[in-house]
Amino acid sequence: MSKAKTSAGLLLYRIRAGQLEVLIAHMGGPFWAGRDDGAWSIVKGEYDEREDAYAAARREFEEETGAPAPDGEALALGEVRQRSGKRITAWAIDSDFDASRIDSSTFSIEWPRGSGEQREFPEIDRVEWVDCATARRKLVKGQHELVETLRRRLEDRQIG
């Protein structure tokens, strides 16, 4: 049996007009094209046991957006498990990242399937600031919990 894959990611957030917004990324490639609800993710990527998870999250952010990961206090959001078994460890950072300009890394796959032709697609094709309700609808299942954890952590800070 193979070991479950692990990913690390950053969930950027900001407060606008008193409302929490998070930055989510639409997954690139032909499988996700034309899909919206359930086709978004936090900015994340795989890493192995030789790499520090937070360093991997920052590296993946830069690879997938083309911009350095923002500095600032990183709030640990813990780990979630997706249906596939993949484990994702994430941190949140308060940022006003410009979502209008991304330059994502690419991947190659045979497309159309069975054609023998390899095509390149962006890892993510766009990022967007959304409120928590929208994030819950758009994120792939298994990542909703990260937004909820962030929301609770920020509420606890205001109360404390």
Summarize the structure.
The chain is α+β, with helices and mostly antiparallel strands. The protein has a single domain, classed as Nucleoside Triphosphate Pyrophosphohydrolase (Alpha-Beta Complex). The chain contains 3 helices and 9 strands; from the N terminus they run E-E-E-E-H-E-E-E-E-E-H-H.
Give your account of this protein's structure.
With 160 residues, this protein is of the alpha+beta class. It has a single domain, classed as Nucleoside Triphosphate Pyrophosphohydrolase (Alpha-Beta Complex). The protein is built from three helices and nine strands, in the order ββββαβββββαα. Strands 1, 2, 3, 4, 5, 6 and 9 form a seven-stranded mixed β-sheet that branches. Helix 2 (132-138) runs antiparallel to helix 3 (144-159). The radius of gyration is 16 Å and the shape is globular.
Helix and strand topology:
Layout: E1 6-16, E2 19-27, E3 40-41, E4 43-46, H1 53-65, E5 74-81, E6 87-94, E7 106-110, E8 118-122, E9 124-131, H2 132-138, H3 144-159
Parallel strand pairs: 1-6
Antiparallel strand pairs: 1-2, 1-4, 2-3, 2-9, 5-6, 7-8
